[in-house]
Amino acid sequence: MWWKGPYFLPLALFSFSPDKIATYWTGEIASDERIIFFPTAAHEWNDTHYSVPLHGWVIEPEEDSKKRRVFIKFLSKTLKVSDPKEKEILKRRIRPFVFDNKSSKSPKIELGGQIFKMPRSGKNGHVYDTRLIPKEEFEKHLLAEDGGSSSQDVIEEEVKSVSYHAFDSKSHRNFKGKVFCVPPTGVSVISDIDDTIKVTNSMNKKDLLKNTFLREFKAVPGMAKLYQQWKSTTYKNCFFHFVSASPYQLYEELNDFCRSEGFPEARTFHLKTIRPKDKTLLQLFADPVEYKRQHIEGIIQKYPKRSFVLVGDSGEKDPEIYAEIYRNFPKNVESVWIRNINNCTIGRLQGVPIDRCHFFEDGNELLGLPVM
To answer: Which PANTHER family match (predicted)?
Structure first.
């Protein structure tokens, strides 16, 4: 039957605008589409080149879609939303979950003096690429990040970044991204987000949903100051990797939260890639042990000469994950810090020496303390 054959897709395209048809074949970004680029971290590939990863999400925003209205109605009923402020936050937070993911898109990128096209995006709209760029060329474009402190005791900030952009030739729009150039030596802080730097109460599923969709994000006291202290005066070449069970649909809100609360700018996010229609609501935020372990191990393997500080909370499986990471990389993991929200004991950190694991309740109690 013809609609199941190879001619169906091209014929179906005639229901779209000329712009849509043209960009389908070229992979360019259509006028009603956009790209969200996530910050990434480059590493030295060899003596002459950097390995530079890129990660974007190609979407068509659905400003007034039926999916969005249904989702809002469902959550409003489930969470018994009546407060006007909560309703406005809900509408804002829901938007990325009903974006139309655009597959087969191949953005044109300008980065480090090179112009190239990324591979085609997948069904979930996410597009990935890794480029090997000569060190001399890449380093010409490095920009220093704001150290966030004017103290005389500041350790010189050496983590820099390169900005890049995707563009479409018709509308001349630019979609900006950033790659951090993480030095081969120094300290990387691998941090959870929910109940580690942001109050979520993930152990109570109703609170988890309310804190995610109905309330402005609230920082765990003292954590932004602590991370700034570690970055500015404690560790040299300090960089932050946020590895979380939260989905990429919350990236922009989480990034804005980190910026407004004063967390260091030298950070990447490693979140879950999901399509909401494939999951139930609570499954979107389930703590994926294997996912977090693989991402953390991948980061450590990219920077074998760096030391790592692991920071999480006791609400889900962070202690067990971090203990396994330590057992696999005892020479790389400098210390493990667990925010204790449910009377966690040292028994959950099997194999981690007692002088390398620490419990705390908020960041303020750690300010000014010597670190291991």
So the answer is: FILAMENT ORGANIZATION PROTEIN APP1-LIKE, PUTATIVE (AFU_ORTHOLOGUE AFUA_1G06650)-RELATED, PHOSPHATIDATE PHOSPHATASE APP1
